[in-house]
Amino acid sequence: MEWHAEKERVILRNVAQFDLQQTFECGQCFRWRRLENGNWLGIVRGRVVEAEQAGRDIIFHNTERSDFVRMWHEYFDLGRDYGAVQRELSRNDPVMKEAIAFAPGLRLLKQEFFEILISFIISQNNNIPRIKRIVECLAQNYGRPVVYREHVLYAFPEADVLAALSEESLRCIRAGYRARYIIRASRQVHALDVDALGKMDSGSVRQALLALHGVGEKVADCVGLYSGLMPDAFPVDRWVRRVMETLYPESGTTNEAIVAFARRKFGPLAGIAQQYLFYFARENRIGMDNPGSEAASSTD
């Protein structure tokens, strides 16, 4: 991959295995939206960027060289050879080969820890459209506004801002019982050293996350995976369980058995494997009891 910066944009040339739509719509993030011109607009760590796909080229508008090197390169996992990842996962596995062929441009984002923590606390027993609405409403009410052209976006709120709120003040976002989890987890997160978590094994990270209010096993695995702290995490809920029972009948019938199977089969690539399978199954309605339902990152 070659890239260069000019004016207020960075251009990536001939990027393999990178599709913006597949990456933003696979269920791992909730704040990227499609513009009328076909580009994608998002705000990450208070920085607004407009991403454009032009064939195999990717153009990031409203950014510069220093931001790309410091932030976007890691966020979009541009240092990983996804061709090698896909070859390894597809080896002797026709199911995974088909899933990857369906979405070869899907990438695993490395997202900001606190935002992903609160977002997946909100995701419990929820569907993707509603998760997006609640997360966006939270940012609009308690985040810092950032103007970009004709758009006003909102940075995700800081932990100390949410920690100072009452459940009553959060009624406006209609998060229901999750409001108390948002507040309590925001108060607890100050005691977490995220840099130290990054040096721990996945099991230790998971235990630290499970100590937070509102964080169960599925949420812990999602937070660990999408923040980059647990790349081998394989989040399982009742829908993913049905998918695995359909695509890999030998994986077992319990969450624990399926996670163990995935880690044996996919090893350190279990996290990205889950994303390929989740997106492939959701878009092809595999494992859905109700054809009219909206598959989401919902938890049991």
From TrEMBL:
Domain of life: Bacteria
Residue runs in coiled coils: none
Residue span(s) of domain HhH-GPD: 122-282
Annotated GO MF terms: class I DNA-(apurinic or apyrimidinic site) endonuclease activity; damaged DNA binding; oxidized purine nucleobase lesion DNA N-glycosylase activity
Keywords, ordered alphabetically: DNA damage, DNA repair, Glycosidase, Hydrolase, Lyase, Multifunctional enzyme
Entry-linked Pfam families: HhH-GPD, OGG_N
Cross-referenced SUPFAM superfamilies: DNA-glycosylase, TATA-box binding protein-like
Reactions the enzyme catalyzes: 2'-deoxyribonucleotide-(2'-deoxyribose 5'-phosphate)-2'-deoxyribonucleotide-DNA = a 3'-end 2'-deoxyribonucleotide-(2,3-dehydro-2,3-deoxyribose 5'-phosphate)-DNA + a 5'-end 5'-phospho-2'-deoxyribonucleoside-DNA + H(+)
Top enzyme class: lyase
EC number: 4.2.99.18
SMART domains: ENDO3c
UniProt-listed InterPro entries: DNA_glycosylase, HhH-GPD_domain, HhH_base_excis_C, OGG_N, Oxidative_DNA_repair_enzyme
GO biological process: base-excision repair; nucleotide-excision repair
Membership in a protein family: Belongs to the type-1 OGG1 family.
Name of the protein in its database record: DNA-(apurinic or apyrimidinic site) lyase
Source organism: Thermoclostridium caenicola
Native organism taxonomy: Bacteria, Bacillati, Bacillota, Clostridia, Eubacteriales
